[in-house]
């Protein structure tokens, strides 16, 4: 905001009435504008914003610059430049990692998954640079985005059946509906576990070897119609036995509660719902 303040002062001097002397224009400049808090400075800029021709009408200056088309874009550009710097993203990541609620666990787990096995997770500012290097990300903005898109948020198919679930307590199901046959095949193929599930009965799908990922889906324990904003359970498919025609016996492990932010139905799937969800 310092640069924005400087340019604001310069533009303010240029947009004064042409009849003013240079000394008079300097006296009307608020030299401490750049020292104000960002929120106050932005509020001032927006409050005094003039539309094109508005100044020339009021002050008789045909060459006056519109603050709405010159100052406000400057504020936006300054904010965009600031939001791209690593300093702010590093501090944002540190705040997420050291939160005082359950979200702290999700951010720490997401970062830990990106680190090589055996790497110590440091939550101190002076040691976070080493963590960044271990993840092989170029900057903190990329690291923040990767944790968000690979762990905190995701898109998953939804299994719908009223029941009581507890995190960490596995349970078994027999899936036979056409939409859930599609669901099982989809998550097995996308996670790289399809061959393992077809080669042996009750295959263990928790291994991450050979590029495989844990197959995940959402279990919505709701009796009514799904709606955005409702909560459900993210579960991991840990064991699976596939039968003819795609039916399956599965063992599921609840790992996190999620909020379903967006819902849609997969075409030609017999009402197989998908959700974009956020861990809570």
The number of distinct helices, counting runs of at least 4 residues, comes to 11
User: According to CATH, what is the class of the largest domain?
Assistant: Mainly Beta
- Determine Rg (CA atoms, Å): 28 Å
In CATH, the topology of the largest domain is named: Archaeosine Trna-guanine Transglycosylase, Chain: A, domain 4
Query: How much of the residues is beta strand, in percent?
Result: 15-25%
Count of the separate structural domains: 3
Q: What fraction, in percent, of the residue positions are helical?
A: 40-55%
How many strands, which pairing sense, and closed or not: the largest β-sheet? 5 strands, mixed, barrel
Shape: elongated
**Which whole number gives the mean pLDDT?**
81
The assigned CATH architecture of the largest domain is Roll
- Sequence of strands across the biggest β-sheet: 1-4-5-6-7
Could you give the count of β-strands?
7
Low-confidence stretches: 13-19
| Terminal CA distance | 34 Å
CATH superfamily descriptor of the largest domain: LON domain-like
In sequence order, what are the helices and strands, one letter per element?
A: HHHHHHHHHEEHHEEEEE
- Structural class by sheet pairing and helices: alpha+beta
Region (Disordered): 1-24
InterPro entries: Lon_prtase_N_sf, PUA-like_sf
Biased composition (Polar residues): 12-22
Question: What does this protein look like?
Answer:
By secondary structure, the chain is an alpha+beta fold. It folds into 3 domains: 82 residues, no CATH class; 64 residues, no CATH class; 126 residues, Roll (Archaeosine Trna-guanine Transglycosylase, Chain: A, domain 4). Helices cover 42% and strands 20% of the residues. The protein has 11 helices and 7 strands. Strands 1-4-5-6-7 form a 5-stranded mixed barrel. α1 runs antiparallel to α5 and α7 crosses α9. The longest helix has 17 residues. The protein is elongated and about 80 Å long.
């Amino acid at each position: 905001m310092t640069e924005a303040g400087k340019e604001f002062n310069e533009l303010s001097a240029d947009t004064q009435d042409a009849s003013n002397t240079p000394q008079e224009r300097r006296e009307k400049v608020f030299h401490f504008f750049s020292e104000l808090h960002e929120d106050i400075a932005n509020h001032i800029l927006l409050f005094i914003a003039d539309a094109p021709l508005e100044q020339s009408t009021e002050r008789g200056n045909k060459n006056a610059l519109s603050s709405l088309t010159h100052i406000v874009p400057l504020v936006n550009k300054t904010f965009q430049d600031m939001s791209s710097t690593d300093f702010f993203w590093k501090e944002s990541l540190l705040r997420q990692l050291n939160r005082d609620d359950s979200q702290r666990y999700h951010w720490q787990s997401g970062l830990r998954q990106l680190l090589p096995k055996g790497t110590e997770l440091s939550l101190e500012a002076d040691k976070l640079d080493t963590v960044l290097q271990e993840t092989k990300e170029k900057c903190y903005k990329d690291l923040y985005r990767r944790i968000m898109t690979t762990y905190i948020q995701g898109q998953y198919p939804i299994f719908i059946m009223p029941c009581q679930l507890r995190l960490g307590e596995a349970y078994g199901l027999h899936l036979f509906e056409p939409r859930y046959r599609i669901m099982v095949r989809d998550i097995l193929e996308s996670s790289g576990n399809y061959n393992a599930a077809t080669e042996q009965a009750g295959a263990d799908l928790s291994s991450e070897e050979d590029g495989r990922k844990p197959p995940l889906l959402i279990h919505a324990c709701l009796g009514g119609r799904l709606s955005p904003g409702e909560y459900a359970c993210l579960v991991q498919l840990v064991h699976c036995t596939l039968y003819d025609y795609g039916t399956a016996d599965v063992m599921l492990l609840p790992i996190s509660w999620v909020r379903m932010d967006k819902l849609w139905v997969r075409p030609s799937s017999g009402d197989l719902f998908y959700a974009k969800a956020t861990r809570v």
